[in-house]
Amino acid sequence: xxxxxxxxxxxxxxVERDRQYCANVGGYLGxxxxxxxxxxxxxxxxxxDLKAGEAVALVGVGGGLGHLGVQFAKALxxxxxxxxxxxxxxxxxxxxxxxxxxxxxxxxxxxxGQTAAALSAAVTKRHGVLVQIAQPTNVSxxxxxxxxxxxRIHGSFTGSVEECRKILNIVSKNNIKVKTKPFNCIKEAxxxxxxxxxxxxxxxxxxxxxxxxxxxxxxxxxxxx
Length: 225
Description:
By secondary structure, the chain is of the alpha/beta class. Helices cover 37% and strands 15% of the residues. It has 10 helices and 7 strands. It has helices at 7-16, 45-48, 64-75, 87-95, 109-112, 116-122, 143-147, 161-174, 189-196, 211-220, and strands at 55-59, 79-84, 100-103, 129-132, 152-155, 180-184, 204-208. The strands form 3 sheets. The chain has a 3-stranded parallel sheet. Strand 1, helix 3 and strand 2 form a beta-alpha-beta unit. Mean pLDDT is 76; it is low at 8-25 and 35-45.
């Protein structure tokens, strides 16, 4: 459990809406405070100022966050353009409801050969917003995208309590699902890591620890995402 937070800090926390790096929230989520899984995060109009009917391009749609991003974007009424460089990723994007899929292995070589962030900037409209969620060692974008095309880059890691409630409502109303690849017990953890790095993964790898609990959940009749 997270350490006790002084009342003064709790008051500031309410005002600041639980932002990860605000000096007044009483700690770091997942480090000194209780946190949550990445699947519970969403980027909506608050970051990119998008409205229903507009288009959003998602680069890297075959992983855990990517395929969930497709489903959330569709639930918000956006036209989803899904970009990936893997057959598995493109297929999962289609299954998740993407309106358009683009294979990043085809097209202009000067774009395809760059980083995911550079590709994201290249497909962003002039004066548009690129929201960075993945966490590579470095984020590299050609200076021309920033200076000549006016692309803005926002980082996004966690959301507020209010945003989490909104996310859960969207999940419930739109039957959003998480694609998983199960592995049995801790002994298969190395296999899960190897598979995740193989480029063949769709969604998230999951290590199954308590098989009895899983069977109980199946017999319960509860509808799980």
